[in-house]
Amino acid sequence: MTRFFFDFVQTGQCTRDAEGIELVDVEQAYLEAFKAGQEMWSELLKQRRDPRRCFFEVRNGAEEILFVFPLQEVVDSCTDRTAAPLKQTFEKLRHTHNYAQHIRDEFVREVRSTQQVLEVSRKLLKHPIS
Length: 130
Known about the structure:
Blueprint: E1 2-10, E2 13-15, E3 21-23, H1 26-46, E4 54-60, E5 65-70, H2 72-76, H3 83-126
Antiparallel strand pairs: 1-2, 1-3, 1-4, 4-5
């Protein structure tokens, strides 16, 4: 088990975590930071503080910063992730539609050209050149 410290930083002011907590690994520390961020979000809003500008600096006992957890990640986890892929899907669909129209127009031109060549060929077959 490793002791992790969660220093809270807001508008340049750092509140150091003097106690820390023992956790299995960095992944567990990240989950703890996320959970704390969720719990703090509404409190910060009640105090008229912008949680999006706050973050945790998570460090080990040797004072090494292991990662920074911005509270913005709490809100980002709640956003509808289908919106961006849906927009991308729509753009791909529009591109495919435009491409299909282009290919169809090209195909129609080729069919007309082939019909004209066939007409000329039929006339030549009926009236061979001597």
